[in-house]
Amino acid sequence: MSESKTTDVIIIGAGAVGENVAGRVVQKGLTAVLVESDLVGGECSYWACMPSKALLRPGTVLNAARAVAGAREAVTGTIDPQQVLARRTSFTSGWDDASQEEWVASAGIALERGWATVTGEREVSIRHKDGSESRYRAAHAVVLATGSTPTIPPIEGLADLDYWTTREATSAETVPASLAVLGGGVAGVELAQAYARLGAEVTVIARSGILGTYPAEASGLVLTALRGEGIAVLTDTATNAVRKVDGMFVLDVGDGGTVTAERLLVSTGRHPHTTGLGLEELGLEPKKIRGDATGLVPDAGGWLYAVGDAGGRVQLTHQGKYEARMTGDAIAARAAGTLGATAEDWSPYAATADDVAVPQVVFTDPEIAMVGRTLEQARKDGVNASETSLPIAVAGSSLHGDDYSGWAQIVVDEDSKVLVGVTFAGPEVSELLHSATIAVVGEVPLHRLWHAVPAYPTVSEVWLRLLEKYGM
Ligand SMILES: Cc1cc2nc3c(=O)[nH]c(=O)nc-3n(C[C@H](O)[C@H](O)[C@H](O)COP(=O)(O)OP(=O)(O)OC[C@H]3O[C@@H](n4cnc5c(N)ncnc54)[C@H](O)[C@@H]3O)c2cc1C
Ligand SMILES: NC(=O)c1ccc[n+]([C@@H]2O[C@H](COP(=O)([O-])OP(=O)(O)OC[C@H]3O[C@@H](n4cnc5c(N)ncnc54)[C@H](O)[C@@H]3O)[C@@H](O)[C@H]2O)c1
């Protein structure tokens, strides 16, 4: 066993979130060791955000051209799956993390490759691939940025089969003739559309509706689009058992139905990756690990942090990176003795937006872009909330596509007259989202928002229509 080396902060997991914590603490003058057992850059770069969006984008572009007379006539071919897969692979750098490794070095962060376990208070042991071991002691903090793990439902027969998770679906080298997608959340729905547009016959099996955390009108637009392009979406459908027959997956669904497909993607959610890290031995319950607004794990002695997917607050890259900035700064401030156990809301140390202003985009075609709370969530939180919604039908949207179909909603706190939630659904609405995020985070009063004039003729004019309908 090697001697323990000392550093200020040890970060376990070099995904987008771990990298950002490390970058931040080093910028503040601390030393950091970043530990990674797989690819530096994590899930988002190699098996999630980037490859899934790269698989979706060509279909969206083609559909956008088909939506405009004059351009439509120029679309005479179909998608080239091999080119799409090749472009996807270029976004993952062929699953090679050399450039990320270079960034880590250039940022002054020490990188250790291997599997880390927490072996004591502020102590981490790293098992390297060659069997050797290194040990570190952190003067200030150990940060769990270990991501999340797919949650696989206990369906009869499933555990023994070679089903896909999102990892295999985002890194596949060929397009299967048919694909069954279990789970109607954002991962399942995005990948269902991507593969359908690449030529697979796709069936989505959802135990309730699809995209159930978004307003029904918004998810309804996506459902109509998916069905319109030939994807079978089975809603309110239980999956009872799965088996393989002649190399094909056969799923027993609903009351006596079956779905047969060459590949099965299980996309039924993810949970924080907190097991196998030695936490039990320290008397901590892995399933109960949750970072507070500064990332600190309460009741762990003031040195253990959990952020990003591992922190159990929000499972999105941009939000995890935001948490990382707050946590990095909180660790540095605590090291300097300028921050106590808790941080004030909206201070540079508290990821307050996690609770009230999370922006999220479903990158299907049409897209859903939402920030903050739905009407139901706001009312559940005790907000005296109203909603105003309408179809997106402005000059900008009709120019965008000949049959543009969209929907928009604002949720207003009637006591303070500020927005607490905004949803847009429709082709390419994701670029409208940051305007809404600024309005929600800035708590911009409606009487002032009324002076934010959308340029003509853009899709943003929907803001004006919403405020007019609200009564401005
Ligand atoms: C299909 C799919 C598409 C997605 N699309 C989007 C999107 O478009 N936009 C968006 O915002 N979010 C998206 N997400 C969510 C996003 O991928 C995650 O929120 C994000 O990757 C979390 O980053 P992280 O750094 O917390 O974890 P990860 O990226 O998972 O990084 C954790 C790292 O820790 C390492 N690790 C774990 N344990 C150890 C250990 N003991 N020792 C050493 N290393 C360890 C792992 O190898 C991994 O590299 C998507 C997710 C999926 C599944
Ligand atoms: N565009 C994006 O930002 C993006 C894209 C993909 C994934 N992600 C993130 O990745 C994470 C994982 O995505 P996900 O779609 O797997 O999770 P999710 O939690 O969004 O959706 C999981 C879905 O599976 C369903 N489900 C669970 N158990 C089931 C069962 N036994 N049978 C049938 N359905 C079942 C749930 O009802 C839910 O609809 C999410 O947190 C998401 O935020 C984000």
> Helicity level, as a percent range?
25-40%
Poorly predicted ranges (pLDDT <50, ≥5 residues)? none
Characterize the biggest β-sheet.
7 strands, mixed
Shape: globular
Mean pLDDT across residues: 97
* CATH fold category name of the largest domain: FAD/NAD(P)-binding domain
Molecular structure report:
- This protein is α/β, with parallel strands linked by helices.
- The chain has 15 helices and 21 strands.
- It has helices at residues 16-27, 42-47, 49-66, 81-91, 98-106, 166-171, 186-197, 216-228, 317-335, 353-356, 375-380, 395-400, 433-441, 446-449, 462-470; strands at 4-12, 32-36, 110-113, 115-120, 123-127, 133-144, 148-150, 178-182, 201-205, 232-234, 239-245, 248-253, 257-261, 263-266, 270-272, 304-306, 359-362, 367-372, 385-391, 407-413, 418-426.
- Strand 11 and strand 12 (248-253) form a beta hairpin.
- Helix 1 packs parallel to helix 9 (317-335), helix 3 (49-66) packs across helix 4 and helix 3 packs across helix 7 (186-197).
- Flavin-adenine dinucleotide is lined by residues 12-18, 35-38, 42-44, 48-49, 52-53, 115-116, 145-147, 166, 170, 187, 273, 277, 308-310, 315-318, 320.
